[in-house]
């Protein structure tokens, strides 16, 4: 009995380790930075790939940077280098995932933009809130 349980545990662990890694998918938008969207760019000064997001309610949370790409197929996580906020809402970007990470965050005001990030922020963001 003990041996069977141990075998089951080992097989369970194997299944976890042998499962393919996360598949990457394009972020929800269409890869263009349109009106009423929050746009994350791969490079400084709004260059490279674009990941564009809409928020139709007072609050939206986007936690899946680790499985998303910019419109050009490049990985989104830890790769955001500039931000355009084309909404009337606030954008809050987090290093690692909120709210359980306790990691630093920074924000972009309504209709604001962030063309160049300092060393502390560049290529670190992993999740985002858009809120009134
Ligand atoms: Ca768009």
Descriptive account of the structure:
It is a single chain. With 132 residues, the chain is mainly β. The protein has one domain: Crystallins (Gamma-B Crystallin, domain 1). It has one helix and ten strands; from the N terminus they run H-E-E-E-E-E-E-E-E-E-E. Strands 3-2-6-9 form a four-stranded antiparallel sheet, with no helix packed on it. It has a four-stranded antiparallel sheet with strand order 4-10-7-8, with no helix packed on it. Strand 2 and strand 3 form a beta hairpin. It is globular and about 60 Å long. The site of calcium ion has 6 residues, from loops.
Secondary structure layout:
Layout: H1 2-18, E1 25-26, E2 38-43, E3 47-53, E4 59-62, E5 68-69, E6 82-85, E7 90-95, E8 105-108, E9 113-114, E10 125-131
Parallel strand pairs: 1-5
Antiparallel strand pairs: 2-3, 2-6, 4-10, 6-9, 7-8, 7-10
Signal peptide: 1-25
Keywords: Signal
Protein name: Peptidase inhibitor family I36 protein
Q: Output the strand order for the largest sheet.
A: 3-2-6-9
Tally of distinct domains? 1
Ligands in the model, by name, code or SMILES, are: calcium ion
Termini gap = 57 Å
Tally of contiguous helical segments: 1
**Rough outline:** globular
| Quaternary form | single chain
Strand tally is 10
Please provide the ordered H/E string of secondary-structure elements.
HEEEEEEEEEE
